[in-house]
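Exam revision sheet. Question 4 asks you to relate a sequence to its structure. Input first:
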Amino acid sequence: MNMLQDSEIGAVTTGDSFGYPPYSKYEKLISLAKEVTRATTVVAHPCDETSLRGAVEAAQLGIITPILVGPAAKISAVAQKHGIEIARYEIVDAPHSDAAAAQAVALIHEGKGELLMKGSLHTEELMREVTSSKSGLRTARRISHVFIMDVPTHVDTLFITDAAINIFPDLDAKRDIVQNAIDLFTQVGLGAPRVAILSAVETVTPKIPSTIDAAALCKMADRGQITGGVLDGPLAFDNAVDPEAAAIKGIKSPVAGRAQILVVPDLEAGNMLAKNLSFLAKADSAGIVLGARVPIILTSRADSVRARMASCALAVLYAHARRSTAVMPAA
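Answer key, C-alpha cells:
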C-alpha cells in the first residue's frame, strides 16, 4: 500500500516524512486516516474525561468507531459531567478496570474490533491481559512499542523503539522490535525507512554490548532476516539524525544523518530520549503497540489532543493496510 502521492514520496527523501512543513506531520497523518474505512476500536475503561474525550473526538473526526468497555454508569457519568456525547456508541458493561481489560481483549478475540485502545486504566493492567499466555493477543512476533515523534525543529518524523515495553531486549527481541517498526512505517505508506541502531558510539566494541547487537542486526538485514528497511549501526544519536555530525565522523551510508527509525539499546535509553524530545524540544509523541493480534493505541493524560489523534490515525492506517493485505489473496 502506498497512500502518499508521488510528489509527497519525493519529499520524504529531502526531509519531512509526510512531505509537509515541520509540525504539520500529524495533521497529514490524520488527513490520510480520514480517507480510509473507519476502524472499530475497543476502548478499555474510558472512565475519565481525557480517555473518553479522546475516543469520541477520534470518532467525530471519522477515523474510528468506538466500543466503550467499562462500568457503564461511570462512563455515562463522566460523559454527562464533561458534556461528551456518547449516545450513539456501544457500551459494554464491566465492573472495574481489570474486568474491562479482560472483556476488551475478549471482544478482540470475538472479532468485534480491529484496534484496542487504552482508557484510564494503568498500562500494566491492559498489557497483562494482552500478554496472557492463555487468553491474550500474543503472536509469534515479540510485542513492542513505537513512539512517533513530531519534533518541531526536525524535518523528519522520528519513530523511536522500544521505549515502553521491553526493558532489556536480547538480540532476538531486538530483531522483532526492528521489524515491527519497519512494518508500521511501510504499511502506512511511507516507503522503505532508514533505520539507525543506536548506541553511545558508532564503532563496534566488545566493551559496549549494544554495539555488538547493532552490528548483528545490520548483518541480519543483509541476510534477509530483517526486511523492508535500510539499516546502519551502531550509530550515536548525533550522527544518526544530523548530516553534519555524520560527515565530521566520516560516516557514509544512506542512514547516517538521515535516520527515520531510531532503535534504542534498552527501555531506559529510549524513555529518556523520548522524554528529552518532548520536554526540551517540545515534541509531540504519539504511541502504538505492535506485534499483538491487533494494533494497540496507548495514550496518556499528558498527551496533547494532536498526539492522541495521531496515535489513533496511525493505528487506523496500519489496520487498513492489514485489512487490505488480508483480503488480497482471496481476490
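Marking note for examiners. Residues 1-23, 327-331 have pLDDT under 50 and may be disordered.
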